[in-house]
Structure formats: C-alpha cells, structure tokens
Amino acid sequence: MTMLRRFGLIIAVLAAWAPFAHLLELPNKLRLDGPLWLAVQQQLYRGWGPLLGGPAEIAALLTTLALLIWRWRHPVERNLTILAAAAYGAMLAVFFLANDPVNKAVASWTAGDLPSDWPRYRLLWEAGHALAALLSAVALAALWDAWRRERIVQS
C-alpha cells in the first residue's frame, strides 16, 4: 500500500505537469498571430500527448482507482480519492471534448489556409488545458490530503 500511495502521488505530479505548463504559457500564446500559433501547435507540441500527457493522466486515474479499493473502509480518505478519480475522469473528458478536436483540425492546416475562426480553436484548446490544470490540482490536493491523513493515523 505504501508503494501504491507513493506511486500515486508521483503520477499525480506528472499528470499535472503538462496542463500547468500550458497554463503558464497561455497569456503569451494568446498574443501569437495565426501562422505562428499554428507553427507552435504543429511543431512544438508534437509527441507531448502520446509520451507524457495522455499516459500520465490515464495512469493517474488507474492508480487512483486502485487506491480507492484500499481506502474504501476509511470514509474521509475514500471520499478524497473519489474526488481525485472524478477529477482525472473529467480531465480525460475535457481532452476529448476540447483539445483533441482542435488537435485533429489543426493537423491539416497550413499558414496560408487558416480558417477565419482560428482564434476560436485557439481559445478552446487553451481553455481545455486551463481546465485540465485546475482539475489536476484538485486531484493532486485530494490525493495529498488522503496520504497526509493516512500518515497521521499510522503515527
């Protein structure tokens, strides 16, 4: 159980890493013109999702669900873990509802044929990552609090 809790916290930090990086760069990305924004989307972020973002978020959800089994008989820790699992589930939903459609759309665009509503795509993508950052913070805080409470009981 101790290893699972530690692993869960490590994965929770990794799951928060990419969304927080996107959140920190959001103000500057909103200032980019269309062709530069498109270049960033198509070049800079290539590989992030399959290598870090997606696997970390899925691993965080699965690890949290495993922790939920262990914490089921402890109401406070169970509820905190349910909150974390819900936040990870919502993160994945946000990705599929906001970020993935934008990723698929911009994959075939060129700087010369940007649609006139490209700022709407940019805003949807950035808002999706900002919401994911908030959800990952909620999950990490809930898991941390459950871990802290378990350590107090063990002392």
Summarize the structure.
The protein has 155 residues and is mainly alpha-helical. It has one domain (2-154). Helices cover 85% and strands 0% of the residues.
Describe the structure.
- The chain is 85% helix and 0% strand.
- It has 155 residues and is mainly alpha-helical.
- It has one domain (2-154).
- The longest helix has 37 residues, at 118-154.
- The radius of gyration is 18 Å and the shape is elongated.
- The two termini are 16 Å apart.
Blueprint of the fold:
Blueprint: H1 2-29, H2 34-44, H3 48-71, H4 75-106, H5 118-154
Helix content: over 70%
The tally of helices reads 5
- SSE run: HHHHH
Number of extended strands = 0
Strand content: under 5%
Contiguous runs where pLDDT drops below 50 for at least 5 residues: none
Estimate the global geometry from the Cα principal axes.
elongated
Structural class by helix and strand composition: mainly alpha
Major sheet characteristics: none
Nearest-integer average pLDDT:
93
Distance between the amino and carboxyl termini: 16 Å
Radius of gyration: 18 Å
